[in-house]
Write the C-alpha cells for this entry.
Amino acid sequence: MGKIGLFERLKSGLNKTRDSITARIDQLIKYHNEVNDDLFEELEELLILADVGVNTSIQLIDQIRNRVKDEKIREAEKVKDILKEEIMRILGYNEEDFILKSPSVLLVVGVNGVGKTTTIGKLAHIYQNQGKKVLVAAGDTFRAAAIEQLEIWANRAGCQIVRHTEGADAGAVVFDAIQAAKAREMDILICDTAGRLHTKKNLMNELEKINRIIEREFAEAQKEVLLVLDATTGQNAVSQAKLFKESVDVTGIVMTKLDGTAKGGIVVAIKNELDIPIRFIGVGESMDDLQPFDSKSFVDALFDDM
Amino acid sequence: MAFEGLADKLQAALKRLTGKGKLNERDVKEAMREVRLALLEADVNYIVVKDLVKRITERAVGQEIMQSLTPGQQVIKIVNEELTALMGGTQSKINLVPNQPTVIMMVGLQGSGKTTTAAKLAGHLKGQGRNSLLVACDIYRPAAIKQLQVVGERVDVPVFERGQKDPVKIAKEALALAKKEQKDVVIIDTAGRLHVDEELMDELSRLKAEVKPHEILLVVDAMTGQDAVNVAKSFNERLGLDGVVLTKLDGDTRGGAALSVKAVTGKPIKFVGTGEKLNDFEPFYPDRMASRILGMGDILTLIDRAQAAIDEKKAEELEKKLRKQQFTLEDFLEQMQQLKNMGSLSDIVGMLPGIDMRKLSAAGGLDEKELVRTEAIIQSMTREERRNPSIINASRKRRIAMGSGTRVQDVNRLLKSFEQFRKMMKQMSNIERSIKRGRFQFPFM
C-alpha cells in the first residue's frame, strides 16, 4: 500500500469533491490570466473555504504576494505552484518517518466522535500485519458500548485486548494493560480513551493522570500521544490541538474522515500554529483506509490536475 | 461555553461604534471588516458571511442609522436582528401528529452524535409525557446497537433491534410494533454516513420511502467547519430535511455551523445538545442565541432552566422559611444542589446580561471548586449543627475542617457569610413589612 496507493486513494477520495480547490483555482487562473488583487482575494476565499483558517490564509497570501512581487511573476498559472510550495513549507518537506520501536505505547486522544476507536482498530491492523504483537487497552470506559466496539475491531485485526467493565477507572485499565504488555512481551500497546471536549477541566485532568501512569509504569517504552481530529472540524480543531497538547504533550495527529468533501485544510493551520506533525490520515471506512501521512502526496492530491 | 469566542470578537468590533455620537460610512465599514473576520474565524461559511456583512452594512449606512441618536446601539440592533434571522427567526418545534406514532429519523455524518441525540430526544419527549420507541438501524458501526440499548435504558425508553438485518425491514417492523403498542413517537437511529457515499445515501432514501417519517433531523457537530454547508445541502437535497440538531455545543466552539446551515438549507435548528449527560438537551431559540452572541444575555433560558431544575413546592417552602428566618444550612445546601442542576456556574453567569466573561475570568474567574468546598463543609456537619450553627465551637470546627478536607478558616468564612446572608434576609423581610405598612425606611438610614 505504498505511497502510490495512498496517492491514488487520496485522489479518488478527493475526486468526490464537487468543486475541489484545484478546479476552482484553475478556473480562477483561466479567468484572470494575469496576477491581480482579485486573484489574491479569491485565493484567500478558497483557502478559508478549505478550513485553512483566517490567520494562516492571510499569512499564506501575504507570502505569495511578496514572492510574486520579488520574483516579478506575471502569470497567474505560476501562482498556483507558489501556493503549493508555501503550503508544503508549512507542512514540512521531509518530516521524519513515524517508526515505532519495541516496546512502544500509543495513547490515542481526542474529542467525542472523531473516530478514535476506529482509528485504533486500523492502527492495530497495520502493525499486526507488519508482524508486530499488538495489545489494545479499552480505556474508553465512559461511552456506552465503546468497549464492545473496540473488542470487535481487535477481533478483526487479530490482536489482544485488555478490558474492564463500563464505568471502570480508565487509569486502572491502562495500568493493567501495561503490566500485560510487559508480561506478554508485546511490541506495541495502543490505549483507547474516552472522547472528551478539551474544555472540560476534570476530564483533561483524568487524561493527564493516564499519561502519568504510562510514564511511570512504562518508562522504557517509546511513548507517542496521537490526537485524532475529524477533517470536517473547523477552526475549533486548533483549539483542540492546543489544549490537548498542553495537557498530554501530543506528539502526532491523525486526521480522519478525509474521504468526504471536507478539505482538511485545518492541518495546515495546526502545523503552522502549533507545529505538531501529522502522522496518519483516514480516507475511508475499511481496514486499509488509514494511511501514513505524506505531505507531498497530500498537497499534490489537493492541487494536481484531476 | 459555545459562541464565547465569537461573542468576544463581535462585541469588541461593535464596541468601538457605541461611544460615538455620529457614525460615518468609514466607521461602519471598519467595524464590519472586523465582524467579517470574527465570523470567518468562527467557521461561519464564507458565502454566508459575505452576504450577512453586506446586508448589515447596507442597513447600517442607510437611513436607519444616521438619523438615530445612538447610532452604535442601532448597529448592534441591526446585527442582532440579522443574526436572529440568519438562525431562523423564531423557535421551531417538532411537529407531533395525532392518533398515530410520529416517526422521527435521525441522520448525519459519523461521530456527530446521532445515537446519543436519539436517546436525549426520547428522554426530552418523555418529560413532556410522550412515550417513544427507539429503533436501532445503525447496523454497520460495531456495537452501535448496544450503545443505543444502554442509553435507551438510561432514559428508560424501550429500544427495538433486530441485529444486522436490513435497516428498512427493521424500521418497518418497529413501526408496526409502535402502532400496536400505541406509542406517541418512533425515533429511528441510522448509521453515520458521508453525504457523498451513494450507496448509503440510497439506503436512507429507501428507508424514507418505506417508513414515511414525519421529521427527518440532521445531526450536526457544532464544531464542523466550512464543510457544514455541503453536508447539510447534500442531505437536504437527497432526503428533504425538516430540521437540524446541533451537538457538542458545550465546548469552546464558536458555532459557525449553527449560523450557516439554516442559511443554506432553510431548515431550522430545532434542538441543541449541551453536554454529556442525557438531559443536556434543549430547544433552540435563535433570538436568545443571537443576544447571547452579542453579550446581551439570555435571561429566558436561565428562567427555563431554573424552572426545570427547581421543585416548585420546595421553592415555596423555602420562601416561607426565609420569611420566618428559619433558613438553615440544610436549606442552603439544598439550594446549592439545585443551582448545580442548572448547569455550571460560568454557564449560568454567561446568560446574565452585562457580564463580560472575559473580564471575569481575568479576575480569577468563577471558582467552581469553591462551591464544592462549601458543599463538603456543610456535609461534614451533623444535622444538629446545620440546623443550629451557633453550637459550632472550636473543637467542632476542627472536626468539620478535617472531615471536609478544608481548614478551620474556611469553616469560619462559611459560617460568617451564612450569618450575613441570614441578616440580609431578615432586613429584606423587614423592608417588605414596612412597605406593606406604608412606612418604608432603609435599614441604614
Notes: Chain B has three domains: 4-86, 102-295, 304-437. Chain B touches chain A at residues 37, 40-43, 45-46, 109-113, 141-144, 146-147, 149-151, 154, 194-196, 221, 223-228, 230-231, 234, 248, 250-254, 256-257, 276 (CB under 8 Å).
